[in-house]
Amino acid sequence: MRLPVAAWAATRTVLLLCVFKVITVPGPDVTSDVSVIYQGWYEVLRTGAFPQGDVTWQYPPAAALAILSPALLPFLEYPAAFYVLACAADAVAFALLLHASRRAPGVARRRYAGAWVWVAGVPLLGPTVYARYDLMVTAVAVAALTVLARRPRVAGALVALGALLKVWPALLLAGTPRGRVTRVVWGTALVTAVALTAAFAAAMPGALEFLTHQRDRGTEVESVGALVFHVARHFGWEGRVLLNYGSVEFLGPHVETVSAAALVCSVAAFGWLLRWRLRAVRWTASTAADAAFAAVLLFTVTSRVISPQYMVWLVGLAAVCVALRTGRQGLPAVLVVVATGVTLLEFPLHFGSVVASDALGITLLVVRNGLLLAAAALACARLWRTTVTEPSRRAEDGRDGEEPGATGSDGGDGPEADAGATASGRLLAR
């Protein structure tokens, strides 16, 4: 275990040197979100109200906790305190993945594969990863998935907290085993979310205004749909690239059509997830993580916004999938890590080329988004095959009973169910 710990310490030292500007990274200053935007929100939030009328505040109410968190370190200036806390969240996620890896079967050099995905994937995003609060949200999601089998109520509460920090962790509910586990996790998540939302609404004016702050967004220049306009600009498209709602977006003719198409694709993705859940007949120890990974990939590639920091969500979920080792998400996880490295090239290193829609910018976006699309397709196909196709084929062949400890559609609880799920997963992996 000393090697991944040493690698984590070395890479995170470099990240801290970057955000503290000891090392200069080419391109736009990614730390301005903390020193200007976050700190501005902090000054408003500390008065007991949300940033009302500020359309750049597009986050659920618990996001206030992340923005206010630097108050825990009053001896540091706001940006420095934020970076230190981001590094602390990084360390927590890493520790959880190490613990999950130690519990997983396999030889030592493979056992820490999930931790290595985190060690390598996070710094590939560059200083952006410490200059956004998404890493804190990802740490909450990693915690929820790693405790799900043993502490379903804790997992449900963590999912609710994550969803109220930045919505997407609600997708972690997609793959919970049917039966008691789902009832406990979903019920706890619902009660926790309602209680926290009510508390924020009662204590701080403007807690729910974020719901209306994205209605007129365009298509962000790094999204999959934006490639239409990057190419169209070379054929006379008359739209513009502007800073809008806190991100650089395309605005102009047909943007609403592409944005609507992205929404239709997101609805279709939800439909596929619903169909998968209804058809799935077997859960292994990693099915919940595999389903969450596939779901977040689907909603990332169909979104009209793919900000660079979104990649840390995928790296965290990929790391959990690999750490649990009973699924087959290894190749999609590798694609996500590679896509994260390409994301660093397009932002911040060559963001000017992306905004200008020149050959380099378009190439980087095609490669990065192509990797994400491939990862999404593979993750969904492998999830379907391991939970629907292969178990059904075994049942039809009369070999279903030969799988020792396999879990049925009702899922399971307790150590016996966990052991059975692991045994079933190893057999399916072969």
Automatic annotation (TrEMBL):
Keywords: Cell membrane, Membrane, Transferase, Transmembrane, Transmembrane helix. The chain crosses the membrane at residues 80-100, 112-133, 153-172, 184-204, 257-274, 281-301, 307-324, 331-353, 359-384. It is a multi-pass membrane protein. GO terms for molecular function: hexosyltransferase activity. It is found in: Cell membrane. Belongs to the glycosyltransferase 87 family. It comes from Streptomyces taklimakanensis. This is DUF2029 domain-containing protein. Its main location: membrane. GO terms for cellular component: plasma membrane. The keyword Transmembrane applies. Residues 391-402 have a biased composition (Basic and acidic residues). Signal peptide: none annotated. Residues 390-430 are annotated as: Disordered.
